[in-house]
Amino acid sequence: MSEGPRNEPTFRESVDLMYNRAVALMDLPPGLEEKIRVCNATYTVRFGVRLRGQIQTFTGYRSVHSEHMEPVKGGIRFATAVNQDEVEALAALMTYKCALVEAPFGGSKGGLCIDPTQYDEHEMEQITRRFAYELIKRDLIHPSQNVPAPDMGTGEREMAWISDQYQRMNTTDINARACVTGKPLNAGGISGRVEATGRGVQYALQEFFRHPEDVAAAHLDGSLDGKRVIVQGLGNVGYHAALFLSEEDGAKITGIIERDGALFNPDGLNVGAVRDWIVKHGGITGFPDANHVEDGAKVLEQDCDILIPAALEGVINLSNAHKIKARLIIEAANGPVTAGADDILRSKGTVIIPDMYANAGGVTVSYFEWVKNLSHIRFGRMQRRQEEARHQLVVDELERLSSDKGLGWTLSPGFKEKYLRGADELELVRSGLDDTMRIAYQSMRQVWHGRDDVTDLRTAAYIVAIDRVAKSYRAKGL
Ligand code: NAD
Q1: What's residue 1's pLDDT?
Q2: Domains with residue ranges and CATH for the chain
Q3: pLDDT, tens digit, 9 for 90 and up, residues 432-441
Q4: CB burial of residue 439 (10 Å; 0-12, 13-18, 19+)
Q5: How far is the CA of 310 from the centre of ligand 1 (A)?
Q6: C-beta 74 within 6 A of ligand 1
Q7: What's the whole-number mean pLDDT along residues 102-120?
Q8: Whose CA is nearest to atom 8 of ligand 1?
Q9: Residue 147: beta bridge partners?
């Protein structure tokens, strides 16, 4: 958690404050309002692992916020700052996020207090498997009950260990692989999951820029092309978002903030080169072609068009909110803006695309992976060649008409190859993600522009999400 000023609410309190602000504009019975807000249960586990000749004790959590739909879903985070408050805040956000993007899950989250850099791969495997064992035996990892995914400090490797651990403990469960998402492709994963959250950030921005009225609200104009972007955290989410925005949309990444400082270059940074440097040297320090700023967090305050906090929560708080110059903030991380900072930024006219929408690409593609695991077949496997054959018929017919009638038609260069190729899994995943991000944005903006008492996207997002969760509780007779 961030070290904001003393009167800064905790992350969970921040989420509750934002929830309360939205719910005050809704007409829910007080009992239901409370039922949706509270976290159903948080399980704390302490377990020992024998490492380097002695037992080390670890503390982990799995929190279930709402079971209005099951399974519940949410990542597992490995970090030293993990605590119950944080896990509960993140679980609540998952409930609202899933509702907003219409992924049929309740909200959950898990975390393990650990610094993964202190252990080698074999030790990490022992620790992860042991943590998974503790959760699996209580159905806190289960294809139809609770399905984790990667989060900060975890990735495909950890998900593969968790999946394998579940399979060892449930040898006859034919749906075992659906117990966790974010797995490597060869262990039941889906194409496009690693990039999904960053890709979702890109699709969210593309959709935002399709609405000139919204762009104007952020005191911006035009398209993403040439926009100056600062990114905090060049991990899974930040890296992919920055890469796609710079390579595909013409945005200029002018600042990258990491643990060991920040890089700044008004002409734009080469995201791939910075990432390679980090992988090789363990940080950004020493990267050529940029100014190095020791106090990285200061770069959050640099002038830019779009700020993408993609590292951790609470980084924009009461101490720096009034100094933020970005016109548009897209919360790729969960909870990067505290409730107090949110008030300040709103009154300054900064537009914030909220976390529950902005980083929903991960859970959306996780949903596709879960469906893939339950259906035991790769997306596109049945249709692809049939689609190609039908397209071939059209091309053949056009070519026949052209030559029979002597019309001399020729197809545009590259058209035939593009048109004839049936969609593979990656293309289908991206299409499903793009569609999800567009529709969810439209549902938020309808409330944002459609109601006089809603002046920001976060409140709009909460209203859409809470309304859906409430409907689902009501349908259950609650
Ligand atoms: P990650 O571990 O891959 O990357 C985090 C990055 O932030 C790392 O590069 C790290 O060095 C950097 N970082 C850490 N502390 C920092 C600091 N104080 N200042 C600057 N940089 C710092 O994690 P991730 O999966 O990319 O997750 C980042 C955020 O996105 C988290 O809030 C997470 O909850 C959220 N998120 C992730 C996913 C996902 O699919 N991975 C999905 C939804 C939301």
Answers
A1: 43
A2: 1-38+192-380+423-478 (3.40.50.720), 41-187 (3.40.50.10860)
A3: 999 999 999 9
A4: middle
A5: 6
A6: no
A7: 97
A8: 235
A9: 73
Residue 337 beta carbon below 6 angstroms from any ligand 1 atom: no
Q: What is the residue-averaged pLDDT of the chain?
A: 96
User: In this model, does residue 477 exceed pLDDT 80?
Assistant: no
AA letter at 274: V
Q: Inform me whether the pLDDT recorded for 446 exceeds 50.
A: yes
Query: Does residue 153's CB lie within 6 angstroms of at least one atom of ligand 1?
Result: yes
pLDDT for res 310: 98
Q: Is 109 a catalytic residue?
A: yes
Query: Which of 73, 90, 152 has most ligand 1 atoms within 8 Å of its beta carbon, as the pocket-test mutant?
Result: 152
Please give the Cα distance from 469 to 472 (Å, whole number): 5
CB of 197 within 6 A of ligand 1: the answer is yes
139 is written with which tokens? Answer: 């159905």
Q: pLDDT for 315-372, tens place per residue? A: 999 999 999 999 999 999 999 999 999 999 999 999 999 999 999 999 999 999 999 9
Ligand 1 atom nearest the C-alpha of 197 is 40
Give the C-alpha separation, 145 to 74, whole Å: 12
**Distance of CA 229 from the midpoint of ligand 1 (Å):** 17
Q: What is the pLDDT of residues 383-410, one digit of tens each?
A: 999 999 999 999 999 999 999 988 888 8
Helix or strand (DSSP H, E) at 12: helix 11-23
